[in-house]
Amino acid sequence: MDGKAKTIVWFRRDLRIEDNPALAAAARDGCVFPVFIWCPKEEGQFYPGRVSRWWLKQSLIQLELSLRSLGAKLVLIKAQSTLEALLECIGAAGATKVVYNHLYDPVSLVRDHDIKQKLGELGISVQSYNGELLYEPWEVYGDDGHAFTTFDAFWDKCVHMQNEPASQLPPWRLDLCAVDGRSIDELGLEDESEKSSNALLGRGWSPGWSNADKALTEFVENHLCDYSKDRLRVAGNSTSLLSPHLHFGELSVRKVFHLVRMKHLLWSKEGNHDQEESANLFLRAIGLREYSRYLCFNFPFTHERSLLSTLKFFPWHADQSHFKAWRQGRTGYPLVDAGMRELWATGWIHNRIRVIVSSFFVKFLLLPWQWGMKYFWDTLLDADLESDILGWQYISGSLPDGHELERLDSPEVQGFKFDPEGEYVRHWLPELARMPAEWIHHPWDAPISVLKASGVELGLNYPKPIVDIDVARDRLIEAIFTMRGKEATARATNFNGTDEVVFDNSETSEIVGNPKAILKEKLPCPTSSSHDQRVPSLQNSKNVILNRKRPMPAEDKQPLRDNVHNCNHNGATSKTDDDLRSTAESSSTKKQTTSSRTSFSVPQAVSLPLKVKPFPECESSGPVEEEIDTEETSRENRAVGV
């Protein structure tokens, strides 16, 4: 064993044994030193919320058991610096190599690039692999060499790629390279005040890669066939529920893709069109997850600024009272409120509900979409930065193929469409439990006799609408008019052009917060290989374009403090609402002293102008609603991946 190479396998969001390229490569080379490094300081503004940290803890426990069964031990480390922790591991284990699987969010891109360069300068071999996607972002470009900015073009390119994504078999046995680390509890992923609330999560969810594999088999064999119909129901378990497993890398996306595609081919051959459509929609949902990583890699400013430059002129309303009412499910629109209260209590909401509450947030309340994205990050069990970025940019009209900015979907219409009997609303809004289905999605129109019989007192035990839909429409139109006026003035002054342009507008947007991290050109490394991760590079020419099913948990009784530290469009911060209780609570908030969680810092030197088609004009509500039932609904799965 002494003559074998010792390799550190740096686990992050790839917490599985099967189809783990970094682990497989290390196992082939010699002794394996698996390590997971928890560095809250480096998480900064994207420190995970309570429920997400609970899942991470349970997943690490399962991974450690699996590695022990193979003869290895997962070393858990809590550190102030990931780089320093890796260097200590290298010294303690006598390792000569570090391997890991790629991540694509802006924070990880900067950190991983910096770590790889510094380890390389010290003569330490570093290799990284694709354990997250079907294809790497730098493998998928148009014929002109430019990055795609619409999903359909991107996904069409992917499905016609000649190289089939290959899966890695799990190792049979690992040679142990023993180094002591911390216990799982010493990582501090969960404190005593959170355990009673977190215990409810274990009743409905089973984290860990082996449980993820069972959940995948159950879905593909028993539920995929009805996915095209079931996914439209907001009540009950109508989606795959695989998104948290995918986020933490407990499932290989390649395995999911191949299993579903085999079903698609089988049903296509049998002429079963309904089931074929179900498989096709699910494959597109996988494609949207791919696309979220693709956008974050090619445009790493998108967690803070819109992909389309037009939106930088939009007059957002930084109204803290509206933001609070939305968070607490007190907007007066039953479907929106039911969704937000479910999120508040469980850390989970259906894809369709995510679309509805986020659309209401942006279009009715005109709140900055970055606030909503950050709140989703803090509260969702399957919080996924790349998917959240894609979903919120899509809803806010920030993408070339996103919702039309002019489009205003009525929560009342959406309610009758996706919760026709009001079952979902009654479950999460007990004050409306006796309201007849005819009125449950617009109680403000109900006769007084109906309200009395239902025990509903508008303005007392259930709020009146926070804004009338006609007023909201007028305000949205006025905001768009203002935006276009400012855009026209700016173009006349600076651009003298007519096409919409996608670019990093950091130079024209004043952002108060942390210093921007800059991705530099990748330096030559003696250990580079074709597997290694690339980073977007800055071209010299300014004219060059860059390229078990869950029961409903009881409502959380733990008093929590809102940790969505908000910023308005000028960078100003607001005080924390002490009366907000939510799954977003982070017990470690007080311990973090470096990065301000009010800012949205971003790598800025990695994105240059990219011309796309002009923003589409709004169509009538009828045809748009019909499109939602087919193609657009699958695209809106981007909120959770699948």
TrEMBL record:
Q: Which PROSITE patterns match?
A: DNA_PHOTOLYASES_1_1, DNA_PHOTOLYASES_1_2, PHR_CRY_ALPHA_BETA
Residues in the signal sequence: none
Q: Which parts of the sequence belong to the Photolyase/cryptochrome alpha/beta domain?
A: 5-134
Q: Which SUPFAM superfamilies match?
A: Cryptochrome/photolyase FAD-binding domain (SSF48173), Cryptochrome/photolyase, N-terminal domain (SSF52425)
Q: Compositional bias (Polar residues) spans? A: 526-544, 565-574
Quote the biased-composition stretches of kind Basic and acidic residues, using this chain's numbering.
552-564, 632-642
Q: Where is the composition biased (Low complexity)?
A: 583-601
Top-level taxon in the UniProt lineage: Eukaryota
Give the region (Disordered) as residue ranges: 522-642
NCBIfam families given for it? crypt_chrom_pln
Q: What is this protein called?
A: Cryptochrome-1 isoform X3
Q: What is the native source organism of this protein?
A: Coffea arabica
**Gene symbol?**
LOC113734284
